[in-house]
Amino acid sequence: MSTATPLMVVDGAGVVLRWSRRAREIWLRSDSEAVGRTALALVAPDIGNSGGDSGYGTGPGSGPLVIHDVDGKPVDLRVRVVPRSDGTVAWGVFEADGDAARLDTPTAVFDILHANTHEAFLVLDPALRVLSVNEAARALLGVTADKALDRPVGDVCRPSRPQEFEDLLRGVLTEGTPVTDHAVQLEPVDAASRERFADISAFPLRNARGVVVSLTDVTESMRSERRSRALGSVRERVGRSLDVVTTCQELVEALVPGFADIAVVEVVDAVVRGEDPPLSPLGREIPLRRAAFRLEGPSHRAQAHPVGDVRAVPTPTPYSQVLSDLRPRAVTLDRNTPWLSADPERARAIRASGARVLLTAPLALRGAVLGLLSLYRVRPYDVFDENDLAVTEQLASHTALSIDNARRYTREHTIASALQRHLLPPEPPSQTAMEFAPLHVPADAGAGTWYDAFGLPGARTALVIGEVSGSGIDAATAMGQIRTVVHTLAALDLDPDELLARLNDAVVRLAHEREALPASDPLRRQPLRAGCVYAVHDPLQETCVMASAGHPAPVVAHPGGVVHVPQIPTGPLLGSRDGPPFATASVPVRDGSVLALRTTSFPGPDTPDGDGTKGPLCQALTRLDRPLGEIRDDVLYRMRDTTGHHDILLLLARTRAFPPDRVATWDLDFLPTAPATARHHAQERLRGWRVGEETAFATELIVSELVTNALRYGAPPIRLRLIKDATLTCEVSDAGGAAPRLRHARTADEGGRGLFICAQMSHNWGIRYSAPGKTIWTEQTLTQDPDGGSPDDA
Length: 794
What we know:
Blueprint: E1 8-10, E2 16-19, H1 21-27, H2 31-34, H3 39-43, H4 45-48, E3 67-68, E4 74-75, E5 77-83, E6 89-95, H5 105-114, E7 120-124, E8 130-133, H6 135-141, H7 145-148, H8 153-157, H9 162-175, E9 179-186, E10 196-205, E11 210-217, H10 219-237, H11 244-255, E12 262-268, H12 269-272, E13 288-295, E14 310-311, H13 318-325, E15 329-332, H14 344-353, E16 357-365, E17 368-377, H15 386-423, E18 434-441, E19 449-456, E20 460-468, H16 472-490, H17 496-515, E21 530-538, E22 543-549, E23 555-558, E24 562-564, E25 570-571, E26 585-588, E27 594-598, H18 616-621, H19 628-638, E28 648-655, E29 663-668, H20 674-688, H21 693-713, E30 718-724, E31 727-734, H22 754-761, E32 764-769, E33 774-781
Parallel strand pairs: 22-25
Antiparallel strand pairs: 1-2, 1-6, 3-4, 5-6, 7-8, 7-11, 9-10, 10-11, 12-13, 12-17, 13-14, 15-16, 16-17, 18-28, 19-20, 20-21, 21-22, 22-26, 23-24, 23-27, 27-28, 29-30, 30-31, 31-33, 32-33
Helix pairs in contact: 10-11, 10-15, 11-15, 15-16, 16-17, 20-21, 21-22
């Protein structure tokens, strides 16, 4: 033992003030037996108890005093003065050797530190054994002086990671570099205590080869910091999504690890679907969906039910009580917890996870129950206190508001999706010259996309696809308005570019109405824009005339595997007040070709996949020798990601040759006999088609009136065409540019009734203009012939 450390320190009266480990080894006296007693009575009891001199050295009339250890061996002692922090001195008794006169630096330092009653200090020797411990340290560590002195510092401090703690102090001792503000977790003082944290600072004693350790209790500050971090993490991360389940997952990820070891979020099942939450107390029959679960480490055994499971909460349990009175609860968990028998599956999971304490809190808003948050801690002595309950209430309130926002969005999205489904046409029925296969993949930010396919006079077919900016109910409503305008304009038999121009005027007016909304309406700040492609397929001419309003051109796949995107002029978006005029492009389309109209969110035909090949649409359209529905499904299967933020919409249309025996065309002479000739041709053809007598009579009258008008107001050549499809179409074309109009003749008028008669005899009529002139057409509903046969039998 180094002689720099005194065996004992005594005051002027010889009373022991400090008793060292070496003194305990020599005289087998504990600290409690030595401190406060006369030193001479301890080391030389025969002399000390006989009233001899209580000092050291030689007494009056006596020789040198020889001290023996318990085995009778002499112990050579030296006495030196030791300064104390109060300015007085004491006597240090040392084993005699060459360094006995050296000042006991650790003891002197400790005497100075001992006066500071607010800081906890330990003085360690080179073996990291405790030489001195002040009162503050004894209170912090829960030890007495006799149980701390001369013991390893790890046994006194009881860190949760002893090896790491000892390595830290060993480094200070060997490297001579101080360590400051190092947080260490300490074991609880007893079984009823909580875990503790201390801030450690260690400084080397260079001359005496020891370490001074300062300890500051930071348990509450660290727990407060943990609560602050949890609350800040929840406020930062929870609520970024407008999906109920995702919001719940964000919550458990923000709390585990850190604030809790296990987190479970259960939500009222109706809330996940966007429905209104029930008011508290929650009925026993109302089911909750397990929306999120998180545990550091393997979780399969620690889960009572898998995520997505839907069931009611057993009662009576803390969970059912929380959902009843909306008050959070902290509950200790052990094998004797009585309510666990009411929920065996949860009890099994709790035991498997090793959870020791539960904090459960309601996710409620304005008295309505949205769900339940359950937090568990596994670490021993790590309990939930009142401050944890207060913080949990705050983060639960924030989460409840976020879940309610997501619920409202889900409800609006559900309504918007339902509105979109009702506004979109069902799968268009196949026509004589075209069959269809639509594909719709809804998304969260959808409801503004639409497609349409409907027949036009002359066996033609109109194809439309478009999308409105924005999302939700507003986008779906605007889409319905625009779709209605398209149908109205298509009934006028306008060319695609003319139709888009008038459609743009209508969207501009709708945008003006939106801008006139009250300033408090958020819709006012959302500009109304829409993209659209309008195409008209004519099977008799084998062409498709297209026009675009800021939308991708359709993809055309020809028999033989040739796929291309035609170059058509792209006009401005609908709702634009300025921009170039709309223009059309005519694309040849043979029998068996496929037209693919798509939204902007659809992967383009030339977009390469990850392996460098063409996009899914281009790949699927290279094989047209399959049913159109199979091609559509093939496109979907080739799309690797359909979870975008916007709807994916695709309309496939395959062209078919129009039966030549259902079309009849005659060029008429520009002579007064033309009406009679036209009636004769029509009568024969209608008889061959076995058209009903009533329809045939009306058609002959319509043909006569239209040809007469062409002779009177038009220019040669005159052409008559009859088309038998789902309806009977009568077309009379001439080269005149005059625009006919429907007149209502007076009783005495000799003319002016031609178009009026045609309008009365048909269910639809109109005028179509082209470069050679104009075409006036009528449509009639087919009726059965006198023999009872179907008009389609021919």
